[in-house]
Specification:
Number of domains: 1
Protein name: ABC transporter permease
CATH class: Alpha Beta
Organism: Meishania litoralis
Order of helices and strands: EEEHEEEE
Number of helices: 1
Shape: globular
CATH architecture: Roll
CATH superfamily: Hotdog Thioesterase
Strand order of the largest sheet: 1-2-3-5-6-7-4
Helix content: 10-25%
Length: 153
Amino acid sequence: MKKPRYDINIKNFLPHREPMLLATITPYIDEVSVVTHFKISDDCIFLDNEGRLSEAGLIENAAQASSAIVGQSYFDDDDLEGTGNKLVGYISAIKKAEVFILPEINDLLITKAKLISRFDTGTMSICTITSSTFRNDDLIVDCNFNFLIHEVQ
């Protein structure tokens, strides 16, 4: 069983880079859950015409946070730089996506995700993850995803 990790740089474990990186700080991650932070900047490509983070941006934020739970298992415990492996993840289904509020520039999003189920086939994992995104203490997004995550040679 992997030990929980604190304050890791999640971009080392995601294939996303600016401007697509929408989960930037990870105060906590373990084998079945994760918490990420993302502060919305004025140069975010997912802003709508009114300066709010769009539905697509909110879902992408939730997906990036969620996929980190299973993705981290492909890395050694002492690999905090994410150099030991290359992964690709796909959203195979968005089972639920409820958006209650579109947050604005400078809002801090806190996304919490939890692993519901997982099936491994060696170099590939199929999983279901639920996530909730908050602005302050307000729930603004509630999602449920299926992912396919696999190693790339």
